[in-house]
Write a structure and sequence with these properties.
There is one protein chain. Helices cover 58% and strands 8% of the residues. By secondary structure, the chain is α+β, with helices and mostly antiparallel strands. It has 4 domains: 79 residues, no CATH class; 219 residues, no CATH class; 202 residues, no CATH class; 100 residues, no CATH class. The strands form 3 sheets. The protein has a 5-stranded mixed sheet, sandwiched between helices. The N and C termini lie far apart (123 Å).
Length: 707
């Protein structure tokens, strides 16, 4: 019983065991004191200098290095599993030395050297082999590429390439027998377009800002296409460039946005929204919608609220005329012009009869033109001009046609209806007045379609048009005077007109119409004078500056407007490296510099700032304010360039070439749009020569029939 222990004794601390553990703890050194600390960044920097390697580091809470990364290996990723790519935690000099001598680091160094060699345009072994080609072979390749360029720029089928080469051989130009086929032509065209692609890629990456144009249409294969253009700074001036032709997944906002993102991804610009300052469209709700439009989605997805949504001013001018024509007799004139167009469009017999009448009258019959298009003002002007020229011939033909019972009764009735309206005095007066009116507005429309259009010139043209319209309301235009000179009583060109109207009523009508047109234009284009993002840009035109070169007025002129622009475009300006604190100071001295130099007087603002930018490359006296000036020069005011691209597209993809893919269309359009800039084939030849895995053999004859 004496050996039996109570149960509570098991819960009492064993003094002997405790004392042994305490002694052991005292004998064991403090682990915290013996813990190995990571080296400092200064130590790692010494390793870098000694071993000649560049390291990036992460630091712990004590400020010491806890991870090391090899900069070259991370950038070129020769081996993604390497600890110096994922982060090496063994912070030792031996670890760095071992990594430098490893195969994966050596491969990364080789990749970097190859990239630098390519950037510096140093000849690679393949390019050196091209240099060893004799001049005759190079000249032959140049001619083949020029022939392929001709095929692309003139929208010829690829199968014509072999026939053109054959023709040149027959004319004594030796092109050899190699690469004389349509497949080689396609390959040559791919590399020609690739050279233009590379040029544009460099321009976009170098430009501090850009703006976007986007418009859609349907090609001859009834598939939807989106044409994307950009406006960027090239050689210190704004220029428009064809970016990409794409086929979106759908024509909704999300489909178009995906297509735009994919186009910029090809140019290695996933962050293009950070330097985009505006986007222009024709006013379609899918583009301009305030809630879910493409432009609004770009703002939200790119966190870029500064991007401006600009409605094409050329389209707005056309819509202003339509607004004016809705409730006026002008719409009746347009309807008659449309009826005349369709009356002759579908019948070669009627056109021939009218041409025969014109020949008897010793004049020429021009085929009537459609006037109810949806693009520009000029098509209405051309239709009215042809009607005035053809009026006598059309009247004679309509009379004969309506009296000839061999013609169908339905068409005879149409001829009588058209003739009845054409013989009205009011109709004749209106078409002559419309020619004067549209002549003034058409000049503005053509100005709005120019590539070098800037805000100051657009506003100046609108103001000039308002003055011309006011003068037209007070005085007869050139065509009204011509009408009155040919009018004898109620007889015009030998035909008696019906329902003559007195001059007082016509003058009142003319003044009312001119006032209506002016109001419609001012309503549609009014934001050019009211929106602060447009009004603020006017200060950069020297014509608007105060006259006193030494006074306080010039000194403070434009400061408020520049503040508005800086506040709105702060993020893209900072991304471009602008120092906000220097902008106003540079603006002050820039005004003095321009106003005191007589050679800038009367010059276009674009040419002025382009010259100053070239002079300032090394001096950097106005670098910050010039970036702001270049930014407002990129405002995309008109997407007429998109319409011209659609014309190129439809010329290339005709009814006979409906199988062309979107990628091939993009290449052909890229070449056709650049056609006026000339073509030097050597770059494209070099690009083709170093591409692909197989060697090029321009002097080796192809296989032929065996004998």
């Amino acid at each position: 019983m004496s050996s039996t222990k109570k149960i509570t004794s098991f819960f009492v601390a064993n003094s002997s065991v405790s004392s042994v553990e305490d002694k052991k703890a005292e004998a064991e050194p403090d682990k915290k004191k013996c813990r190995r600390t990571n080296p400092s960044p200064k130590t790692v920097k010494k390793w870098e200098d000694e071993l000649k390697i560049t390291l990036n580091t992460e630091r712990d809470q004590d400020g010491n290095v806890c991870k090391m990364f090899c900069e070259i290996c991370v950038e070129h990723r020769a081996d993604q599993t390497s600890s110096f790519v994922t982060g090496c935690t063994s912070i030792k000099k031996e670890s760095v030395k071992f990594h430098k001598e490893s195969d994966c680091h050596k491969r990364a160094v080789d990749i970097k050297a190859a990239a630098q060699k390519k950037t510096a345009n140093k000849p690679t072994p393949i390019q050196q082999s091209l240099m060893k080609l004799d001049e005759k072979a190079q000249d032959k390749l140049d001619k083949l590429f020029r022939t392929a360029y001709f095929i692309a720029s003139h929208a010829k089928p690829f199968t014509d390439f072999a026939e053109l080469c054959k023709l040149q051989n027959e004319n004594g130009i030796d092109l050899g027998d190699t690469y004389i086929n349509d497949k080689a032509c396609v390959e040559f065209i791919t590399h020609i377009a690739g050279c233009y692609f590379d040029d544009l890629k460099k321009i976009l990456h170098d430009s501090p800002f850009l703006s976007i144009y986007c418009d859609g249409t349907t090609d001859n294969s009834n598939s939807e296409k989106e044409c994307i253009l950009v406006r960027a700074i090239d050689d210190f001036e704004p220029r428009n460039f064809f970016l990409k032709l794409v086929e979106p997944e759908n024509t909704k906002a999300d489909g178009i946005l995906k297509a735009i993102d994919a186009a910029f991804d090809e140019f290695e610009m996933p962050d293009y929204k950070n330097k985009t300052i505006a986007m222009c469209s024709d006013g379609a709700s899918v583009m301009m919608g305030g809630r879910n439009g493409v432009i609004q989605n770009i703002r939200e997805t790119g966190n870029a609220p500064w991007i401006l949504a600009i409605w094409c001013i050329a389209h707005r001018l056309e819509l202003a005329l339509k607004d004016c024509f809705k409730q006026e007799y002008l719409q009746t004139v347009v309807d008659v012009l449309t009826s005349i167009f369709y009356f002759y469009r579908g019948s070669s017999k009627r056109c021939k009869e009218a041409a025969e009448i014109a020949e008897v009258m010793d004049t020429h019959f021009t085929k009537p033109e459609r006037c109810n298009g949806t693009r520009w003002v000029d098509h209405k002007l051309r239709a009215i001009s042809k009607l005035i020229k053809n009026w006598k011939v059309l009247v004679m033909h309509m009379m004969n046609y309506a009296e000839d019972h061999s013609n169908g009764s339905e068409y005879r009735a149409k001829a009588k209806g058209i003739l009845k309206k054409m013989m009205q005095f009011k109709f004749l007066w209106y078409i002559h007045f419309m020619k004067d009116l549209l002549g003034t507005i058409s000049a503005v429309s053509l100005q709005f379609q120019r590539e070098d259009l800037v805000l100051s010139s657009a506003l100046t043209k609108v103001q000039s048009a308002n003055e011309s319209l006011h003068d037209l309301g007070q005085n007869d235009g050139e065509n009204i005077q011509s009408f009155r000179n040919k009018l004898v009583g109620n007889v015009y060109e030998g035909e008696t007109l019906h329902n003559v109207v007195d001059d007082v009523s016509l003058n009142n009508e003319k003044q009312r119409l001119v006032l209506s047109v002016t109001d419609c234009i001012n309503v549609r284009l009014g934001n050019l004078n009211t929106d602060e993002m447009f009004v603020s840009c006017h200060v950069f035109d020297p014509k608007n500056w105060p006259d006193d070169q030494q006074g306080e007025a010039l000194n403070i002129y434009g400061n408020g407007e520049i503040g508005i622009l800086l506040n709105h475009f702060r993020e893209p300006m900072l991304n471009a490296g602008v120092d906000e604190n220097q902008v106003l100071n540079e603006w002050k001295y820039l005004k003095l510099y321009i106003s005191r130099n007589q050679h800038f007087t009367g010059k276009n603002p674009l040419s002025i700032y382009k010259r100053i930018s070239r002079e300032d490359v090394d001096r950097k006296e106005f670098s910050n304010i010039l970036l702001l000036i270049h930014l407002i020069g990129l405002y995309p005011l008109s997407n007429a360039e998109c319409e011209r691209c659609f014309s190129v597209m439809k010329r290339i993809k005709s009814d006979w070439r409906c199988s062309l893919s979107t990628e091939r269309m993009d290449q052909l359009m890229r070449i056709s749009i650049r056609d006026n800039e000339g073509f030097q084939p050597r770059r494209a030849v070099n690009r083709w020569w170093i591409s692909g895995n197989s060697s090029k053999r321009p002097d080796v004859a192809p296989y032929g029939p065996r004998h």
